[in-house]
Amino acid sequence: MQKFPKQFIFGAATAAYQAEGATQTGGKGKTYWDDYLKEQGTFNPNTASDFYHKYEEDLKQAHAFGINGIRISIAWTRIFPEGTGKISQSGVDYYHKLIDACLENGVEPFVTLHHFDTPYPLYKQGDWLAQEMLDAFVAFAEFCFEEYGGKVSYWITINEPWSVVAGQYIIGHFPPNIQYDIPKAVQSMHNMMVAHARIVKTFKENKYAGEIGIVHILESKYPITDTPENRDAAEREHILANRFLLDATFMGRYSADVMCVIQDILEQNNGKLETRPEEFELLAYAAEKIDFLGINYYASHFLKAYEGESQIHHNGTGEKGSSIFALKGIGERVNNVEIPTTDWDWPIYPQGLLDMLLNVKETYPNYKKIYVTENGMGDKDILVNGTVQDVGRIDYVRQHLEAILDAVERGVNVQGYFIWSLMDVFSWTNGYNKRYGLFYVDFETQQRYPKKSAYWYKEIADKKELI
Ligand code: BGP
Questions:
Q1: With a 6 A CB cut-off, is 242 part of the ligand 1 pocket?
Q2: Can 160 be counted among the known catalytic residues?
Q3: Is 15 in the pocket of ligand 1 (CB under 6 A)?
Q4: What is the CATH number of the domain that holds 293?
Q5: Structural domain of 292
């Protein structure tokens, strides 16, 4: 049986807004989710998994189950309630305590600076489309490096630029709930990459200890049947959602074929991308200096050519088969009958992870190392006799770990895996019935219960091989 690399991290992931709860504690300021979720009235994020109060218990539990790494994020509005200006000492102290508790329990913190939680005032100013946001984010990052620099060895600038812009401007299930505005999405991705690059520059020039990277969601795209039109649709979505960001990350520019497709998509959607020469200098600097890439992988997509107007239905309830995703100038995601899906219509396709890992290695040979920073299966778990028999999740994770081992054997430098999520958490657009955790959370009592997958994961982490 093939072993994982010696220093491999068997981690678990969380994000501040999804795990901490305590949205109004310690002077925390609002993100763009607070009012929006309240108005919508569907799910209440105020308590989430109460990680704000229960982190010590959770980290002890993580350690007891063989977990040696955790993704946490720093909620920008706990530290700067308005995004800029006044600092909340209670927020600053909280992250000292949290990071210390990670280290005391032997669980290495990988700390994300932006995990979908822009402060409300900066969101109102235009979010990633506004220069004020970019400047404020760089200032927030510098503050964190100064404050926590000695303790944190792994920094992540931004979590999933693609999901942010797809949610905000294409699917419309993240505020400001705009649909099909691909030009805004592209501009926003470019701006996020520029902010990322500025932060990498600050980090490296000031010689902070530790490593810095970015996390991209990277889903492979395949033609549903092998026709030139379907191949083109798959390639176009791959360029829009993956290559545009990877080019910026590792080349510091957009390659000619990427730009050609992006321009065509923008034209078909009546928009254009604004860039400045000095931004490419920053991107090129960061491309050379970045220490690692985080890949979040849950699913891949099968594409068919599509000529009509854009149409999307987000399946946020787990009603299988209800998703629609068709974009003008790109293509339509369709069901592949040979591939199983989750109740939320996410195709379960570990081969897509292997293909993506190989693709990154081949296309961007200057990448240094990769962590799979999120992977896991959302399910409607049921607690019976104090546990959950989540064999489907075990199967899912096993298959994806096998894909990672295959990639490692084929020369891809993968150094860790973080299951999404450590415990059940709040899901941005699906609420609380889509559970991913190794630990079941009773959201009424906040009691934790290890699932069967937690015991299984422990065995793997202990033996450092798949069982
Ligand atoms: C990723 C996000 C996470 C988490 C996960 C599961 O895109 O980084 O924050 O939410 O997806 O997604 P969902 O909760 O929509 O099922």
A1: no
A2: yes
A3: yes
A4: 3.20.20.80
A5: 2-466
